[in-house]
Amino acid sequence: MSRRSIHGQFAGVYTAEVNSSNIDASAVTIEDVREAAIRIQPYVHRTPLLSSRSLSEAIGVEVRLKCENLQRAGSFKIRGAMNALLQVPENQRRNGVVAFSSGNHAQGVALAARLLGMKATIVMPEGSNPSKVAATEAYGATVVTSGVTSATRDTVARDIASKSGAAVIPPFDDWRIIAGAGTVGLEIVDEWPDVETIVTPLGGGGLLSGVAIAATSSKPDIAVYGVEPRAGNDGEQSFKSGRIIAIDPPKTIADGARTLAIGERNFAVIRERVRDVVSVEDDVLLDAVKFAMYRTKLVIEPTGALGIAALLSGVIKPKGKTAIVVSGGNLDFSLLC
After folding, report:
1. Hey, CA dihedral for 23, 26, 29, 30, is it positive or negative?
2. Angle at Cα 168 formed by Cα 85 and Cα 180, nearest 5°?
3. What is the arithmetic mean of pLDDT over 30-47?
4. Any alpha helices (H) in 18-99, and if so which ranges?
5. Bridge partners, residue 169, by sequence
6. Which residues contact 308 (CB under 8 A, 6 or more apart)?
7. What is the pLDDT of residue 21?
8. What mean pLDDT value characterizes the chain?
9. 119-122 contacts: CB < 8 A, separation 24 or more?
């Protein structure tokens, strides 16, 4: 079977298959992640790794939260965005960048572009979280939503780029994005060398693949897990089948995980370095958001709470010291009403 791009081609198809066997999973190494950490250090926060007695007691192992909800722009996304923008050639920077995203990548690229004095155009599906759209615009980006869907956002963005000469900054299927996201894992292992398990949300796979590279390169026996919403569990299906499975646009409160398929580069890494990929129902996920707010006093969006939900519900039964990546905190508070 020939390799095909999965973005924007499989809307309405549930079992579409893509061959990614020709992707080299070793294209990004721990050294690339370390170089990304140095490159982005002046622009991002080293977020805290907070212990939680409530979570530790509920789950039965020592738990710490890697709080990317406290990151600039409210999520880990600025790490990959900044790493990518800093590598745009000087002669292309004047044309700006264009990205496509449901929310957090949009804000990450918008803020990174603002910090570097570059123009940014962000293509977001109609119906995107209004607060994320407003925040993206507040960072100075031009937001395009009219007629855009989850299936067409990539195509629209690349059309804009072809006409303007802007550099395209994908949300996850890009080695620069993966290396930038991997700095989350680098910080976890550096600060907590005894960590035995890392659990991270999974959308397109940039965060999970990056964290897996950083963590398993430093500690080969560490167990890395990915968690998705059950309604959008394309990654879980892909991991268990050994091939990329594309799904219909999922209806889930985890807007950061409404991807149609995992990225090819991301999947190549995940199938080699991740212990398992699991999923949780939206009601369990909402309970995890509320638990985090009431018991840890942290504001976490549903996608960011996927790891907490998987552990509290017993979908993942970790052994030993466990770090949960809280990927973002851009919560739509109407979900709590």
Report:
1. positive
2. 40
3. 98
4. 30-40, 53-59, 77-85, 90-93
5. 99
6. 55, 65, 288, 291, 292, 300, 324, 326
7. 55
8. 92
9. 119/95, 119/166, 120/96, 121/96, 121/97, 121/157, 121/160, 121/164, 121/166, 122/98
Sequence length of the chain is: 337
Cβ(52)–Cβ(296) below 8 Å? yes
Rg of the Cα atoms in the chain: 18
Q: Which residue has the tokens 């907490």?
A: 308
> pLDDT by residue (tens digit) across 269-302?
999 999 999 999 999 999 999 999 999 999 999 9
Q: Check if the beta carbon of residue 133 is closer than 8 Å to that of residue 124.
A: yes
- 304 contacts: CB under 8 Å, gap ≥ 6: 68, 69, 75, 201, 256, 326, 327, 328, 329
Name all domains of the chain by residue range, CATH numbers in brackets: 16-76+175-336 (3.40.50.1100), 77-169 (3.40.50.1100)
Residues annotated as catalytic are 77, 102, 228, 232, 234, 327
CA distance 195 to 191: 9
Q: Which residue has the tokens 């970790």?
A: 318
